[in-house]
Amino acid sequence: MAKESKFTGDFGLLALQLGFFLMLLAMCTEQAIAGTAGVFQFVVGDVRVVLAAGSERPARRGSPVSVGDTIATARASVAQIKMGDGAIVVVQPESRLTVAEYHYTGKLDGSEKLRFRLEQGGIRSVTGAIGHAHPDSYLIETPIAQIGVRGTDHETYYFPASGAGKPATAQPGTYDKVNVGLTYLRTQAGEVEIRPNQVGYAASAQDIPRLLPAIPEFFNRATEPRTAQRGGPASGSDAQLAPSRIGAPAQQVTQAVLTTSGFNLTSGNSSSSSNSGASPGTTTGTTGTTGTTTGTTTGTTTGTTTGTTTGTTTGTTTGTTTGATTGTTTGTTTGTTTGTTTGTTTGTTTGTTTGTTTGTTTGTTTGTTTGTTTGTTTGTTTGTTTGTTTGTTTGTTTGTTTGAALTGLPGTVVGYTTPQGSKGGNGLSGVDLSIAANGATLANTGGDAARGVNWGSWQGGLALVGGSTTNGATHFVESTDLTSAAQLAAMPSTLVNASYSYAGGPPPTDHLGTQGAINSLTVGVNFSTQTITNYAVNATVGAATWTGSGSGSIARFTGAAGINLSGNCTGCAGGGSPTTHGTANGAFVGTAAERMITSFGLNKGTQAIAGAAYLSR
């Protein structure tokens, strides 16, 4: 009986020791899972892993990446990492990326987290299980902005004001391009939503992010993700990563990427994104046509055509055209059209035509035109029309014809507001932004013919500015007599300081479209240091009086970023701080910068105003 009691006691002690050992093993395993974030799939060139303690080691294919590690790539060097949740990250040349936070046990229980910190350069990321199941748990940070996802293949770049790796054509700031899915780019000032084939940009933490009108060229040089091949090269052999072809940016990821659970992130078994409908485009070239076209065209054309068509069209066109044409045509047509047009045209044409037509039209037009033309025609027609027109024209023409060109000239400044939530707005300013009427009509037009200046407001619709939907109204000022960079550099030494004052322009509006007035707008300039020394605007819209002031370089003022403004809003609803913030852009007019055109946007909470103005000195 005593022996049995002793055996029972020894067995209980052994079971207790075994249980304690298994608990320690589970704790160590969990710590290992939490500490190891991913593994290097491919390494090309000089890639270093800088540990949190400060030491570093060379990156090797198959070696782990842990929380706190910083991946640093040299020039012409690239690394691809596969995270534990199946995410793929390609670290581009001359970049620094830190795995700031990672937690994933293989289960999607809400505790998972993935956060990168991009200190310099760029990455391309295809989200894994965390980004797909819990997008709010996936984040990319730069020193000035944050990027969140909604199940995405996207590319992020951050270029500081100084340092290696910044392309010569790139402005400092954070860029994010979406290939598949959806992201947002957020700063202290606001955020912008980015969809496939769009690029978001933030110049600083104080600037409101915005969509760029075109994809910057450096995205074309980025290295795309590559799929690891089973039974491929040995671990000591580093594979090549192919860069994208110049001029052919990737539209979507074509390689298969699997999560640890076997979920295919890029095939039809996972999320997909598709686009349908017409897309705007740009056509530039020289066209000459000789021949005969007979047939029927039915359909809808939507888009923007910009360019110059030069040539001679000779022939006969017979047929019927039925459909609707919506869009904007900007450019110059020069040539001679000779021939006979016979047929019937029925349909609706809505849009804006801007440009100059020079040439001679000789021929005979016979037929019937029935339909409605709504829009704005602005431009100059020079030439001779000789021939005979026989037929009947029935329909309604509604629109405005004003002066020479209206919008789309290089250097055009634009002040506008975009929606913020369901009731608010963002006041924005820009230069060289495309404007599509999208149902809006032109109002408050004016100008200075001697300086080739035109201004106006698009209102009564939701005009598109740089592809972004607006609310309120969109204001612009443009000129055919802009001061060139060489003329600015050659300003006489006797003209060091200059002051410009408000001379005219369209009335400003708030995000609800309420019109107001500019009480004063002055700009101080130092041509010796090439700086805007003081930009000051005071405007009243409704019961609120807005002020904003700022300074900065002429290069920033005339560029895409603009200069930052801050001020107050007296009478703004909602209480709280009266502080306002915003941006201003501008350009000089005349061979000796005798005039200036400018636009501004100001924000206070969900309230905003925007405007544009013409100044003289």
Number of helices: 4
| Total DSSP E strands | 35
Shape: elongated
Task: Round the Cα radius of gyration to an integer and report it.
Answer: 31 Å
Give the helix level as a range of percent. Answer: under 10%
Strand content: over 45%
**Residue runs with pLDDT of under 50 for 5 or more positions:** 24-34, 228-240, 242-350, 364-406
The overall pLDDT average reads 74
First-residue to last-residue Cα separation: 113 Å
- SS class: mainly beta
Q: How can the largest sheet be summarized?
A: 17 strands, mixed
Description:
The strands form four sheets. The protein has a 17-stranded mixed β-sheet that branches. It has an eight-stranded antiparallel β-barrel with strand order 27-29-30-31-32-33-34-35. The N and C termini lie far apart (113 Å). With 617 residues, the protein is mainly beta. The chain is elongated and about 90 Å long.
